[in-house]
Amino acid sequence: MITRFLFVICLSFLSSTIFSNNDIWGPTGHRATGKIAEKHLTKRAKKKIDKLLKGESLAFVSTYADEIKSDRKYSKYYPWHYVNMPLDTDYEHAEKNPKGDLVTGINHCIKVLKDENSTEEDKRFFLKMLVHLVGDLHQPLHIGRKEDKGGNTIQVQWHRKGSNLHRVWDENMLHKWDMSYIELAENAQDLSKAQIKEIEKGDVLDWVKDTHQLTKKVYSSAKTGDKLSYRYSYLYFPVVRQQLQKGGIRLAKLLNEIFC
């Protein structure tokens, strides 16, 4: 009886972990985005950020928003990690989560950071949150369907081991490539100034729309029961790298505007 009880408890825990809609780029992906952003900061913005973070790097603080999930006092920020919306609509016309979402979270962070009356403590907290959330915005299944929890319930195999589509994009491809966040950042595509300007173009809603176009392709890339491995990485790991770079460039754009 005790063994069966423990089995049920473990199964329940695993299910809640697998099907959580709050999964994110793994730490490697978030740190790579933060490191890439640092390359695109103005000297003025970098100086102000260094002072606010007391020397901690954007890469170091990029995982903070996940680390605080274990503390219930921060539970109101959980919905900030994602947006649920159908594939055939856009953010403006999608049903909104009354508790907030990725877009409202990013906008709140920006508001606090721009407010001269915000305390240094609040600015530090919401800067850390912003670094993470901009990374989340560029993981295509963070702008996924509500019914499958951003791909978390689409069960697949990854190199003969159980996984789900969300996790494949969050961590599996990154882990299989076996590069550190520094290696990923240093090997980001060499872009021209015109290409960088093109990535920076628009605002948060434009970037959501951009990622959501990719979301549609990701959903069509696999279905429940598929066995994914090298071929899938060959096709889609370049897209992961591209999204990490876009996230870093766009994060830097926001920070340069905030700390001008």
From TrEMBL:
<feature type="signal peptide">
    <location>
        <begin position="1"/>
        <end position="20"/>
    </location>
</feature>
<keyword id="KW-0540">Nuclease</keyword>
<keyword id="KW-1015">Disulfide bond</keyword>
<keyword id="KW-0732">Signal</keyword>
<keyword id="KW-0378">Hydrolase</keyword>
<dbReference type="GO" id="GO:0016788">
    <property type="term" value="F:hydrolase activity, acting on ester bonds"/>
</dbReference>
<protein>
    <submittedName>
        <fullName>S1/P1 Nuclease</fullName>
    </submittedName>
</protein>
<dbReference type="GO" id="GO:0006308">
    <property type="term" value="P:DNA catabolic process"/>
</dbReference>
<dbReference type="InterPro" id="IPR003154">
    <property type="entry name" value="S1/P1nuclease"/>
</dbReference>
<dbReference type="GO" id="GO:0046872">
    <property type="term" value="F:metal ion binding"/>
</dbReference>
<dbReference type="InterPro" id="IPR008947">
    <property type="entry name" value="PLipase_C/P1_nuclease_dom_sf"/>
</dbReference>
<dbReference type="GO" id="GO:0003676">
    <property type="term" value="F:nucleic acid binding"/>
</dbReference>
<keyword id="KW-0255">Endonuclease</keyword>
<dbReference type="Pfam" id="PF02265">
    <property type="entry name" value="S1-P1_nuclease"/>
</dbReference>
<dbReference type="GO" id="GO:0004519">
    <property type="term" value="F:endonuclease activity"/>
</dbReference>
<keyword id="KW-0325">Glycoprotein</keyword>
<keyword id="KW-0479">Metal-binding</keyword>
